[in-house]
Design brief:
With 338 residues, the protein is α/β, with parallel strands linked by helices. It has two domains: 7-219, Class I glutamine amidotransferase (GATase) domain (Rossmann fold, 3-Layer(aba) Sandwich); 231-333, Arc Repressor Mutant, subunit A (Orthogonal Bundle). 44% of the residues lie in helices and 13% in strands. The chain contains 14 helices and eleven strands. The protein has helices spanning 19-30, 32-38, 103-114, 125-131, 147-153, 183-194, 197-207, 231-243, 249-257, 261-272, 276-294, 299-305, 311-322, 326-333; strands at residues 7-12, 49-55, 59-62, 68-71, 73-74, 83-86, 118-122, 139-140, 158-159, 165-168, 174-177. The chain has a seven-stranded mixed β-sheet, with helices on both faces. A two-stranded antiparallel sheet has the order 3-4. Helix 3 (103-114) links the parallel strand 6 and strand 7 (118-122). The longest helix is centred in the last third of the chain and has 19 residues, at 276-294. The protein starts with 6 loop residues before the first strand and ends in a 5-residue tail after the last helix.
């Protein structure tokens, strides 16, 4: 809803922050003024957003990539804000995050929320936001690479990992966005919410950005864990990686394991988070995605190559797992020569 006074936006930067979303968010909100005036969402001469970059200390700071970030104010000097954004952070390993390094900032984020601020996260910034406890009992999203560590460390969070943007909490004061450039969705949402949808649409045209309305599923790479410590399941995973197209693959995995079918299914799900048949389906779709990206094979042929004799069944499965049709996936992600 449009306001008479500027919306105070605090963009958090730490030595683990990626520089591009910090600067991108800052410059996006700064550019809103003329667009809002042109669209009639703000009177002439007004500035919709009062934006600043905040961090542990004021002054120049090296980002995770080494690029400098100018921090305008230290968090200790910010007594209140309307919107607080935690952008992408550098991850360690496969989307993991080393917690406990910013207790002062965690306490500050909680204090800002208690004072009425809408707390937002972009991409892996959700890992730091989750440390505050504000996501407990709420729906949220995060970079799909961070799904497993966030579920393990914060089981109280209801993850909607397929979504690019999730609004939750009382009064919609928790906003999380997914991978990498989903901060575009976050910026467009905040502009629509605090200035107006016409200005948000003008912003999208001006910066040539768009809502990721299909969510993150099409971008998700299935990379199941193999460090779970169950040797029998690891053997099954390695076998199915080369034999995913065989008939009755889930049954064959169980037979080869030497375990009873019930025991194998229980241990497989505990180790991988998937049922055996669900795991096979994800592996097959992942192989199909690579073929769609890299070749000209007909979808019917790809269906047969990954283990499905009925192309219609394959198409339904592909759409269910990725959120888009096989044809749309090829149009969007096919590798093209320069």
């Amino acid at each position: 809803m449009p306001r008479d006074s500027p919306v105070r936006v605090s963009i958090l930067a730490t030595p683990d922050s990626m520089a591009s979303p910090v600067s991108g968010l800052f410059e996006t909100f700064v550019s809103v003024g003329p667009l809002a005036i042109a669209e009639g969402d703000a009177p002439a001469g007004t500035v919709p957003f009062d934006v600043e970059i905040v961090g542990p200390d004021a002054g120049p700071m090296r980002s995770a990539s080494g690029l400098p970030i100018a921090v305008h104010r230290a968090v200790d000097d910010v007594a209140g804000t309307d919107v607080l954004i935690v952008p992408s952070m550098q991850m360690h390993g496969s989307g993991d995050w080393l917690p406990g390094r910013y207790p002062r900032i965690v306490a500050w984020i909680r204090a800002m929320h208690a004072g009425g601020a809408t707390v937002c996260s972009a991409c892996s910034g959700g890992m730091l936001t989750a440390e505050t406890g504000l996501l407990d009992g709420q729906e949220a999203t995060v970079h799909w690479l961070s799904e497993a560590p966030l579920r393990r460390r914060h089981p109280e969070v209801t993850l909607r990992i397929d979504e690019a943007l999730v609004v939750s909490g009382e009064g919609g004061r928790i906003v999380t966005s997914g991978a990498a450039t989903a901060w575009h969705d976050l910026a467009l949402y905040l502009v629509a919410r605090y200035v107006g949808p016409a200005t948000a649409q003008a912003l999208a045209r001006y910066h040539l950005v768009q809502w990721h309305s299909d969510g993150q599923r099409a971008f998700h790479v299935f990379d199941p864990p193999t460090d779970h410590g169950d040797a029998a399941i690891v053997v099954a995973q390695r076998w199915i990686a080369d034999n995913f197209a065989v008939a009755n693959p889930a049954e064959q995995m169980a037979d080869r394991s030497g375990l009873t079918a019930r025991t194998f299914k229980r241990r497989f799900r505990a180790a991988t988070g998937e049922t055996p048949i669900g795991y096979v389906q994800r592996v097959r779709v992942e192989r199909a995605k690579r073929r769609l990206e890299q070749g000209d094979d007909a979808i019917e042929e790809i269906s047969w190559l990954v283990g499905y004799e009925d192309p219609a069944s394959f198409r339904r499965l592909f759409k269910r797992i990725t959120g888009v049709t096989a044809g749309e996936y090829r149009r969007r992600f096919r590798l093209r020569p320069p």
